[in-house]
Amino acid sequence: PIEIDLTRFQNLDIKAHDDGVWVVTLNRPAKRNALDIDTIDELVDFFSVAPRAGVRAVVLAGAGDHFCAGLDLIEHHDADRSPADFMHVCLRWHEAFNKMEYGGVPIIAALQGAVVGGGLELASSAHIRVMDQTAYFALPEGQRGLFTGGGATIRVTDLVGKARMVDMMLTGRVYQGQDAVDLGLAQYMVDGSSLDAALDLARKAAQNLPLSNFAICSAVSHLQNMSAMDAAYAEAVVAGVVNTQPDARARLAAFADKSAARVRPGGQDVSGR
Ligand code: 1HE
Question: Does residue 40 form part of some domain?
Fold first, then answer.
């Protein structure tokens, strides 16, 4: 595996755990982790190398009381960008978020406080979202004279459906608590720390074979973009590669000799027990 040069990162705090789980923390709490260009560049850099650096799973977190306040509105105001300038900003966001969604490394977002605008676009690029009791979700772009540019029209619409998406954009509606889980904005809500719960889920995912996780965290998204016929074909090809991987033989043998755990209901809480 290639090495990740941690000295390059300023706005992201990045820590590797010895079980292959990495914690990537947006680290500008005084700015509510607003996404400036440098932060997006760092996300591109990290998620460009993570799939080839032995990273088995990532927890994506935000320092302080809020996960992320979205686009850095002050930077955007000061830069007074041209349409072409901002198009290129958005393309850079897409580069980062596509590397996340399609990169093949499981990403678990640990959410608290504001998950708004571009912060929701970032969170929706993760594969699992875990919220604590303080987390809330909104798209305030409309109120600010803006429009989403970081993939919300695709990813948030996928989560909540078109009608709810348009309502969120038009009215700035805020979702929180169980409503947010019921809508699919987050898959888990916890009483305590979303970071601890996300770490548990990441450790659990990291126990899967990397090639299985690669398929789950890239093929599902790619297949969704295809016609049903093409998706079925491509799924068969992916399964051909994954389901015959030599590393899977020991797991299959453990099932056959009855030493492997059986699938049971009620055995899966957020702590993975
Ligand atoms: C920021 C930003 C930001 C805070 N860009 N600097 N996003 C929004 O419209 C959300 C804007 N932010 C907020 O509504 C609030 O800041 C929060 C609800 C997130 C937090 O509230 P609070 O009371 O804890 O903090 P605050 O006093 O509002 O802000 C603290 C500091 O963070 C302050 O800086 P300071 O230097 O004056 O101390 C704020 O300016 C700064 N800050 N949020 C820049 N977003 C690719 S298109 C994507 C489109 C979008 O994402 S639109 C953005 C939507």
Answer: yes
